[in-house]
Amino acid sequence: MKKIISIIIIVIIIILMVSIVVLYNKIYKTKCELTIKESDILLSDDSVLPIGTVVLLKSGKKKIMITGHLQVTLSNKDLVYDYSAVGYPEGQLNTESSYLFNKEQIERIYFLGYKNEEQEELEKRINYLKKH
User: Fold this and answer.
1) What are the phi and psi torsion angles at 111 (to 5°)?
2) Strand, coil or helix: what is 69?
3) What pTM does this model have?
4) How far, CA to CA in Å, does 9 sit from each of 42, 80, 81, 101?
5) Which CATH class is domain 36-114+126-131?
6) Which of 2, 52, 84, 111 is buried most, with the most CB atoms less than 10 Å from its CB?
7) What is the largest CA-CA distance in the chain?
8) Mean pLDDT, 10 residues at a time, over the chain (132 residues)?
C-alpha cells in the first residue's frame, strides 16, 4: 500500500513539473513579433509608438528600439524628430549609437512596446503638439 501511494505521489509530482514547464514556455517563450499586416496598420494611423517598440527603418539593415519621443539635435534645434532609438538587441553602446527618425522612415514594426493609460495620454499630447 505504501508503495502504491509513493508511486502515485511521484506521478503527481511529474505531472506538476511537466505542467510548469509547459506553462513557462507558453508565458515566456511565446512569439511576440507583429505580423506585416499589424505593422502596416500601426504605420498607417496617427498612433505614437511606445518606448520599447522594435522597428526596422526603410534605409536600415538593423533593428532598433525606440527610446524617446520628439527629439532634437544640438546642431539644429528647429528640426524635431518623432523618435530616438538604439540598436536592438545591444542597446546604447556609446553616445554615437543613437538614431533619430520620423515615423514615415519606418519600414516595419517587429514588436510593440508597453502601452497603458500614461502612454495614451502622452500620445494625445504629442498629436496635439504636432497639429499646433
Assistant:
1) -145, 135
2) strand
3) 0.72
4) 51, 65, 62, 59
5) mainly beta
6) 84
7) 83
8) 78 76 59 86 89 94 93 81 91 83 95 90 86 78
